[in-house]
Amino acid sequence: MEQTNTTTQKKSLFSNLTVQILIAMIFGAILGIFVHNNYSEDAAKEFSGYIKMLATIFIRLVQMIISPLVFTTLVVGIAKLGDIKAVGRIGGKALGWFFTASFISLLIGMFWVNVLQPGTGLNLSGIDLSTAAEVTEKTHNFSAQNFVEHIIPKSLFEAMATNEILQIVIFSIFFGLAAASLGDYTKPVISALDKTSHIVLKMVNYVMKFAPIGVFGAIAGVFAIRDLNELLITYAKYFGSFLVGITSLWAVLLLVGFVFLRNRMKTLLKHIVSPLVIAFGTTSSEAVFPKLTEELERFGVKDKIVSFMLPLGYSFNLDGSMMYMTFASIFIAQAYGVPLDLGTQLTMLLVLMLTSKGIAGVPRASLVVVAATCGMFKIPVEGIALILPIDHFCDMFRSATNVLGNALATSVVGNWEKEK
User: Fold this and answer.
1) Which end of the chain has less neighbouring CB within 10 Å, N or C?
2) 348 within 8 A of 373, measured Cβ to Cβ
3) pLDDT band of 182, cuts 50, 70, 90
4) CA 276 to CA 397: how far, in whole Å?
5) How far apart are CA 410 and CA 420, in angstroms?
6) Can you say whether residue 279 is alpha, beta or left, with left for phi > 0 and alpha for psi between -120 and 50 degrees?
7) What is the Cα–Cα distance from 326 to 320, expressed in whole angstroms?
8) CA–CA gap between residue 55 and residue 123 (Å, rounded)
9) Which residue in 280, 323, 359 sits closest to 113, CA to CA?
């Protein structure tokens, strides 16, 4: 009997998604390092291209269900809230939290990059500035008009086709409020959307079974073409300073979590450990959106709060990315010897606070915002090339931090509403 229990425990351990992903990360790193050390550069690049397809398949499977999940859950959530006052109350709390968290994250990045000075005295020789071309090209369209166009949808179907979460959120809020104002007349529509959301959440379970394979491909692909030892030696000061900043941000977030949630914070962390590991391995906080929705509801946050808060959070509450933006922008200024007084840095912080909102769907969004901000403050935009080689590893940490920040914001607002 005791042997049977032990066998069952072992099976449940290895069927745990988090454990499977951690194992996949280890084997992915081993395979990637082996390929890097034993094959030519061209062969390693070819291998990386093929193995990364596993990660691409996983992320595309997740992206496939994000649009219908956001639309159905958000409309149903708003309709269940019942009136504009309730939406305004929760929305006000959400935005208050998001902007406060963003400001603190930006301040932490600004503080540590000034204290540790990772860019001062950096040797710029040997940096291939052409690698920044892809990012800097995207900054040409970075204007107030482009910002507004990115937020306001001209077509729901176009927004869904391109996974523009914020645009879907805007349409869903209007649709949900209109449905709520019509009362019982819209019950059949809301009921159908509610059933659809449950079907989509069931699809999440199927898609997540592929997560370890996707993480394996992502990690193996990166390690195959990156000489980790060389990168860490070259960027030791930069990466070390970044880790100090991101660790400080985690400490603040966890402390705030314990203040508001008390002992329930430990339970929340147990629920979100799997989404955190997936985001870390795939460098995509978007990849865990459906799984995070499911886990927060299991944690006890009402579905109407989760469906309202989480889509907003993915557009307005990217704490890890915010911390990185001030850190990277000022680092580039330090590397090029561009002096920035405290007033200028605080102005930069406010600019980043505004320009970073609503671009969650833009590839390499953090780098695009950093490049645009550098251009505004006369810092060489091509300096982006300095951080590109190590950016993937920084992205692993900031993606996981984004997930933690959104889970925390949703749980705290859900707790406030429960108490009310």
Assistant:
1) N
2) yes
3) confident
4) 10
5) 15
6) alpha
7) 11
8) 35
9) 323
